[in-house]
């Protein structure tokens, strides 16, 4: 089995992207949520169990930014040290593209359907407007929305059926398998696709 450890909110995307790449082959993949990049020690037995059974472990987390204690190189170094300390093995991929600082939302901004990318520009105008209001002492008067809010607003802006609206509001379904919203064929996803393909090849070879 290929066991993929994610931080949380990206699980829905990966499930849909794996089906997009290889169809409904769920018995070969399992996605586990860690609820944070510092929680690997809580799941060490899941890593070891899969390795002992001939499986492949993958870690797909955010690179984050130096401003919040992350950054691609720094986060990879931290995660590799965790793996070494726990005596577990896994291949690491960091959003958005495994070489730049960023996170899952950065990746999503790059894979929106180009026809509707104008919606992100609209939101950026709103962000600038909010940031332009300051107190007499120069401090910001309001809290600027984060990128999670931008992605939410992007999906919320589309007209939907009643059923789709319910899925979005109650289940937080971002419709990652719908090309109206997302372009899963974009070149920007090539690093992730190649990473997953490498894991698939490694797993297939270990099964021989």
How does this model look, in words?
The chain has eight helices and four strands, in the order E-H-E-H-E-H-E-H-H-H-H-H. It is of the alpha/beta class. Strands 2-1-3-4 form a four-stranded parallel sheet, sandwiched between helices. It is globular. The model has no long low-confidence stretch (mean pLDDT 94).
Brief descriptors of the model:
208 residues, alpha/beta, globular, 4 strands
Cα separation of the termini: 14 Å
Adjacency order of strands in the biggest sheet: 2-1-3-4
**Topology order in helix (H) and strand (E) letters:** EHEHEHEHHHHH
Major β-sheet, in short?
A: 4 strands, parallel
Q: Indicate the structural class.
A: alpha/beta
Mean pLDDT: 94
Low-confidence stretches: none
Percent in strands:
5-15%
Large-scale geometry: globular
Q: How many H/I helical runs? A: 8
Using only C-alpha atoms, the radius of gyration works out to 19 Å
Beta-strand segment tally? 4
Percent helix, as a range, is: 40-55%
Strand and helix map with partners:
Blueprint: E1 2-6, H1 11-22, E2 29-33, H2 44-52, E3 56-62, H3 72-86, E4 91-95, H4 104-110, H5 118-131, H6 147-156, H7 162-171, H8 190-206
Parallel strand pairs: 1-2, 1-3, 3-4
Helix pairs in contact: 5-6
Quick recap:
The protein is of the alpha/beta class and 208 residues long.
């Amino acid at each position: 089995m290929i066991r993929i450890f994610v931080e949380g909110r990206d699980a829905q995307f990966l499930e849909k992207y794996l089906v997009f790449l290889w169809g409904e082959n769920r018995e070969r993949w399992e996605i586990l949520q860690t609820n944070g990049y510092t929680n690997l020690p809580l799941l060490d037995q899941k890593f070891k169990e899969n390795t002992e059974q001939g499986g492949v472990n993958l870690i797909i987390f955010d690179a984050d930014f130096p401003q919040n204690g992350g950054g691609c190189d720094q986060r990879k170094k931290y995660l590799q040290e965790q793996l070494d300390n726990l005596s577990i093995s896994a291949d690491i991929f960091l959003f958005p593209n495994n070489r730049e600082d960023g996170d899952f939302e950065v990746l999503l901004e790059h894979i929106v359907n180009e026809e509707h990318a104008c919606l992100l520009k609209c939101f950026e105008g709103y962000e600038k407007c909010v940031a332009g209001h300051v107190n007499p002492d120069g401090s910001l008067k309001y809290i600027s929305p984060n990128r999670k809010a931008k992605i939410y607003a992007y999906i919320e802006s589309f007209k939907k059926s009643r059923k789709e609206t319910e899925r979005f509001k109650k289940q937080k379904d971002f419709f990652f398998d719908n090309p109206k919203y997302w372009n899963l064929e974009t070149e920007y996803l090539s690093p992730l696709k190649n990473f997953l393909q490498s894991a698939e090849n490694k797993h297939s070879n270990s099964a021989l």
